[in-house]
Amino acid sequence: MRRSLGVSPAGALCVLAIASLSVVLAACGGSSSSSGSSASTAQGTTSASTSTGAATTSGSGGTTATPACATSGLAVRVGANGSGAAGSVYYPMTFTNQSGHACTLYGYPGVSGVNASGSQLGSPAGRDATSSPQTVTLAGGAVASATLQITDVANFTSSTCVPTHAAGLRVYVPNQTASQVVAFSFQACAKAGPVYLHVSPVSLSSSTAPPNSGGTTTTAACTTSGVVIRVGTNGSGTAGSVYYPMSFTNQSGHACTLYGYPGVSAVNASGSQLGSAASRDTISAPATVILANGAAASATLQINDVGNFTSSTCVPTHAAGLRVYVPNQTASKVVTFSFDACSKAGPVYLHVSAVT
């Protein structure tokens, strides 16, 4: 006769304990898997927010990033008077932050010529890679700048370019899809192909941020009205050219900065331009010059002997003065200066260095 197996009270307790432990282990395993999935999702969200430059939401543990400047929050302007060099004219572009908060710009503006109806003319601007892009943080009211180079369309064959009149420029703020049209009259190519526009990356302009804007106040750029311009009458000659000193004295009553090249062209007694504007002598790189009130910066003007050019190409004439633009300013002053010039555009007989 078989004896049935009994379970003692202690044995029953052991079985229950083992079963309970299995349930706990299973529960812990499920919790670990769920927790790992949740952490992965949160990390992915944070990464996406960082890559788009969006501000991190409060409580996420991240640092709030400065948003990119939107087209609607910027005032875009193009200076009406540029400085000429070797078949091109360089115009200053400014981007003023009017959004009411700080924002950032990085890279190149998009620029193209347009007709009166807003239709694009020819190819958009190429990128001038002379300087590298850098992130520019603009406080409210602060200004970033870029340089627009417009090549004389006469450099291209008529059939390739199909010259026409442009009524404006369509400008895209860097990394934005909305645009603004700025009224600007110039000769453009109607046919795509020749790249007659080139634009530099945006950089911080030397303008003063308004009080309580949250930005760093910088020394303002020298304006034409606050600078006295002189050209030395006695130059030093070499190899068919004469070099004359130019001075820019700050009489604004406060410190200001100069950066880059003056715009220079010869004029007759009535103030009309004679021939091509001065090209840029790039032997020395531009550097920011901070002028205390009463201090002076200098540049060198090279005037080529017009006898170096054929008479039909140059059409020699007498110049009564020089029209001078302070670097990055659209107003000019005429300085009395008598010399022989070319009346016909083409030969570049004037060259100017950066201010130092």
Structure description:
- The protein has 356 residues and is mostly beta strands.
- The protein has two domains: 71-204, Immunoglobulin-like; 224-352, Immunoglobulin-like (Sandwich).
- It is built from three helices and 25 strands.
- The protein has helices at residues 9-52, 158-161, 311-314, and strands spanning 74-78, 83-85, 88-97, 103-105, 110-114, 120-121, 126-127, 136-138, 143-151, 163-172, 179-189, 197-199, 203-204, 227-231, 236-238, 241-250, 256-258, 263-267, 273-274, 279-280, 289-291, 296-304, 316-325, 332-342, 350-352.
- The strands form six sheets. Strands 1, 2, 3, 7, 9, 12 and 13 form a seven-stranded mixed beta sheet that branches. Strands 14, 15, 16, 20, 22 and 25 form a six-stranded mixed beta sheet that branches. A four-stranded antiparallel beta sheet has the order 6-5-10-11.
- It is globular, with a radius of gyration of 33 Å.
- The model is unreliable at 1-62 and 206-217 (pLDDT under 50).
Question: What is the topology?
Answer:
Blueprint (H helix, E strand, L loop, with lengths): L8 H44 L21 E5 L4 E3 L2 E10 L5 E3 L4 E5 L5 E2 L4 E2 L8 E3 L4 E9 L6 H4 L1 E10 L6 E11 L7 E3 L3 E2 L22 E5 L4 E3 L2 E10 L5 E3 L4 E5 L5 E2 L4 E2 L8 E3 L4 E9 L6 H4 L1 E10 L6 E11 L7 E3 L4
What is the CATH architecture annotation of the largest domain? Sandwich
| Residue-averaged pLDDT | 80
Shape: globular
Number of domains: 2
Count the helices. How many? 3
CATH-defined fold name of the largest domain = Immunoglobulin-like
| Proportion of strand residues | 35-45%
Rg estimate, integer Å: 33 Å
Count of individual beta strands: 25
Biggest beta sheet summary: 7 strands, mixed
- As an assembly, this protein is single chain
H/E order of the elements? HEEEEEEEEEHEEEEEEEEEEEEEHEEE
Class per helix and strand makeup:
mainly beta
Poorly predicted regions are 1-62, 206-217
Q: Give the distance, in angstroms, between the N- and C-terminal Cα atoms.
A: 118 Å
Text of the CATH class of the largest domain: Mainly Beta
Q: Specify the helix fraction band.
A: 10-25%
